[in-house]
């Protein structure tokens, strides 16, 4: 459905886009014997960008592997209030920039007799590039970064992350910043979410805080995300698969549609093509307009099926 | 101030309690050269229980060290709605049971050229005793445990924790349970906090989720905590020191008073003395009554100074 929305945007702005579909996840594991088949990896490799749906319990073997394999180091998670949802507070607009390749997600885990150990890995290089990413994004936004870690308890690993982030801050004098421990950040996201513009953090904290922030703005129904590398990027809704409504045509497509809008924005920068940026903006504003008109699935209190939301969105795009 | 409240409770129920004071934290570091002087360690060792105030930036060298040193393995963090605060939702009453001795708090951190590594350690023994603690507490409450981890990404460490917790669950058939990934839990605490009774989790997740839960019920002003070991226990407010109001007599004492109530409850079990349990209940109900009457510091919208709240509480205790 997000595909036809992008297709429609392409028609409107006169560019072409080719979609190819590949299998991944629980159903691929069951039917093909592998959660992430080689064909899918090759498919991602040969594309300009990828968009991924929920995959189920095999998430680690799919998304964590793809992030590592293609070095998709920047996980962007906007948490923004959209019409028709019930947020804790209006006017929240946060961009979480989560380091996406290291920390405990590196996957170094060992079993010992009666115990297990995992390695939390933090490198200067990865800390620097994600901090650069966050400060550059802040320049396009409200010019403020909150650096989140727990260096009081982990002075070496989180300390390194914080130190490098502050070095990067000093080379972006137009952007102000503050540092916050992760526990304090989990409170501040509820107490004072409007005080956040860009939130820069490490992988595990980003996983937890981005879901929390999504709930602050009304839940995962509207939560898109991007996994961005040097040459390739992969976009996905934050929500998982909802087995209880699968196949009923009731899935809320907005998070995927907004992920597609992020994809168009990224592609416009990657290709230097302003038509794609216009397409991205159109998709997002069509989503806002459609939501204002109540074009929504039952989880948002609407009466539309997934495919009807798609048709509604396309109609709004043509109109706008 | 919490001291005179406990003293008053002792007078009322006819038991005796002796308090000794020891230095720790930023000011001890500045004045004595050590954040946790040997004398303080000995003082804690020779007591039945300890109560600790906020210590500042040296927290790791004080509280994390004391937790390890005395093997205070169970960190209890109630998140309960009290009168006079503004919670996200009424009727929330959660007990977070946080493993308090291992995970990344073990302190095994290493610097390498351009990087750093920390070890996340999970043992079967520590997982089992904290799970036992949580299920026993659930038996005294609403008989439900939510087990929180991230075994989809860390199958060995978090997997061990989850597996042991489920083994323990099977030996407590009167308590029902569910499992939740930590990111989902950070959402559920906002969306549906009343669905939680006991929340059992690992050290790092417990740090983050307990602050989040405290904010859900109105902030840290009312957040007590307990660090419990086999023979000794240490109680502390969750909030830190507030340098901006230090010395002005405006600090909100309720979190410390409620920590003292937890201490009396624990001591009553440790000593098998029902008078202490009555004292604990009296201190807590006096706090509730005082809050209903608006006996509160400015952070809670009241006009009372710290010492006046203390006097008000004591008066209510005598009255009840
Ligand atoms: C499904 C899981 C592996 C994944 C993660 O932990 O990163 C998800 O929670 C997310 O945040 O994208
Ligand atoms: C101060 C800090 C070391 C401590 C922790 O991280 O455990 C605090 O945040 C807490 O939760 O008690």
Automatic annotation (TrEMBL), chains A, B:
Residues 1-313 form the Isopropylmalate dehydrogenase-like domain. It is an enzyme of class 1 (oxidoreductase). GO terms for molecular function: 3-isopropylmalate dehydrogenase activity; isocitrate dehydrogenase (NAD+) activity; magnesium ion binding; NAD binding. SMART domains: Iso_dh. This is 3-isopropylmalate dehydrogenase. The keyword Cell cycle does not apply. PANTHER family: DECARBOXYLATING DEHYDROGENASES-ISOCITRATE, ISOPROPYLMALATE, TARTRATE, ISOCITRATE DEHYDROGENASE [NAD] SUBUNIT ALPHA, MITOCHONDRIAL. Belongs to the isocitrate and isopropylmalate dehydrogenases family. Keywords: Oxidoreductase. InterPro entries: IsoCit/isopropylmalate_DH_CS, IsoPropMal-DH-like_dom. Its EC number is 1.1.1.85. The keyword Oxidoreductase applies. It comes from the Archaea. One of its GO terms (biological process) is isocitrate metabolic process.
């Amino acid at each position: 459905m997000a595909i036809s929305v992008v297709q429609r945007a392409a028609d409107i702005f006169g560019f072409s886009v080719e979609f190819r579909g590949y299998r991944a996840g629980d159903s691929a594991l069951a039917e093909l014997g592998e959660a992430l088949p080689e064909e899918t990896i090759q498919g991602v490799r040969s594309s300009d960008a990828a968009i991924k749906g929920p995959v189920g319990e095999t998430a680690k073997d799919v998304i964590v592997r793809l992030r590592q394999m293609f070095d998709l180091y920047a996980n962007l998670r906007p948490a923004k209030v959209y019409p028709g949802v019930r947020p804790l507070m209006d006017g929240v607009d946060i961009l979480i920039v989560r380091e996406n390749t290291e920390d405990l997600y590196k996957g170094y885990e060992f079993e010992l007799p009666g115990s297990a150990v995992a390695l939390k890995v933090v490198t200067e290089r990865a800390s620097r590039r994600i901090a650069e990413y966050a400060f550059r994004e802040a320049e396009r936004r409200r010019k403020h970064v909150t650096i989140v870690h727990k260096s009081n308890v982990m002075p070496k690993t989180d300390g390194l992350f914080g130190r490098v982030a502050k070095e990067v801050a000093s080379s972006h004098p137009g952007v102000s910043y503050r540092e916050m421990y992760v526990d304090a950040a989990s409170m501040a996201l509820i107490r004072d979410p409007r005080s956040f513009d860009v939130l820069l953090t490490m992988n595990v904290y980003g996983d937890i805080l981005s879901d929390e922030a999504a709930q602050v703005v009304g839940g995962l129904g509207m939560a898109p995300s991007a996994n961005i590398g040097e040459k390739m990027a992969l976009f996905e809704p934050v929500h998982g698969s909802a087995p209880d409504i699968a196949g009923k045509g009731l899935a809320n497509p907005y998070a995927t549609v907004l992920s597609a809008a992020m994809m168009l924005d990224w592609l416009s920068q990657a290709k230097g093509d302003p038509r794609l940026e216009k397409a991205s903006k159109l998709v997002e504003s069509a989503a806002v307009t459609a939501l204002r008109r109540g074009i929504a699935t039952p989880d948002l209190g609407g009466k539309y099926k997934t495919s009807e939301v798609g048709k509604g969105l396309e109609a709004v795009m043509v109109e706008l």
